[in-house]
């Protein structure tokens, strides 16, 4: 099955949402190290008897490649603020307007959907919000994995959300 983004890009406004996550710096060659963190975070939350309030997400701060590390957080939204520890951090999905698009297909093909969203944002004269004005640090770039229990990754749906400036 070929990946596609069968839902048109759109703007969505959201309120701040607390989350817990583990931060990691990882290259594409080491990506599986990031993937293993989801279970660790989920088990940590179960140990705290905290309620998960949304799907697994990856938050991107710095984009990387096969050699240069991505700076990401792997986590889950929670229903209420919970204190982290030396490994698990707390944060929040910022409030504001997000450009969003649903990716349908294998996560290895997400880049194609990001390109569609990027082109649409340019057509709409939207700019991505960067952290403290730094051109390489994202203020809100997320992938929300909507159905990771689906065994065939070609049938996964991933909501991409990028915070816009203004």
TrEMBL record:
It holds the Pfam family GyrI-like. Residues 7-165 form the AraC effector-binding domain. Gene3D superfamilies: Regulatory factor, effector binding domain. InterPro entries: AraC_E-bd, GyrI-like, Reg_factor_effector_dom_sf. It comes from the Bacteria. This is Effector-binding domain-containing protein. It comes from Mucilaginibacter terrae.
